[in-house]
Automatic annotation (TrEMBL):
Keywords: Oxidoreductase. SUPFAM superfamilies: FMN-binding split barrel. Pfam families: Flavin_Reduct (PF01613). GO terms for biological process: pyrimidine nucleobase catabolic process. InterPro entries: Flavin_Rdtase-like_dom, NADH-dep_flavin_reductase, Split_barrel_FMN-bd. Residues 1-146 form the Flavin reductase like domain. The keyword Oxidoreductase applies. Transmembrane segments: none annotated. GO terms for molecular function: FMN binding; riboflavin reductase (NADPH) activity. This is NADH:riboflavin 5'-phosphate oxidoreductase. It comes from the Bacteria.
Amino acid sequence: MAQLAAPVTVVTTADGEGRRWGFTASAVTSVSLDPPRILVGITHGSSCHQPLLEAGQFVVNVLAGRHDTLAMRFAARGTDRFAGGEFEDWPGTRLPYLPDAAVLLRCAVRDIVPVGDHDLLLAEPLEAHTGGSSGALVWYQRSFHVPVQTAHLGEAAAGAA
Ligand SMILES: Cc1cc2nc3c(=O)[nH]c(=O)nc-3n(C[C@H](O)[C@H](O)[C@H](O)COP(=O)(O)O)c2cc1C
């Protein structure tokens, strides 16, 4: 699986007392356009598992290249992941979001598919925004990467002629 490049996101939610929860997640992908659905995979052992299922809503903060340190903090145990003060409340909700993310998706859970030690949350994106950063952070071969665009196909064809 280390050969499978994946996006790096921080999935955030808030419980009934307004307490913030969040974890770094790379098991995030688009699965359907009609109806619109994305998938987030969360291990049963995650501290965020119960809060996420109970809240039934979350924000996918798609990270940019400069967020590698933040991604490690949201994967670390025994630390206050929100201590950096980067997150704000999504307007009209208590859901934390990172204004500086590359892309922000506010989602509602529609289905939960248990698979082994994970639950796959199938969620409907309700709102989408581009955030303050561009670019993407990618998890590949157990470390962070920033994608580099390959030669444009047209240019490659011209070069080969
Ligand atoms: C790059 C990266 C991607 C991760 N992706 C996921 C994921 O998709 N789902 C998941 O449950 N945990 C994922 N994790 C692990 C969590 O971020 C976190 O470390 C784990 O849930 C333990 O946190 P806890 O102390 O909240 O239980 C990932 C960690 C890293 C570093």
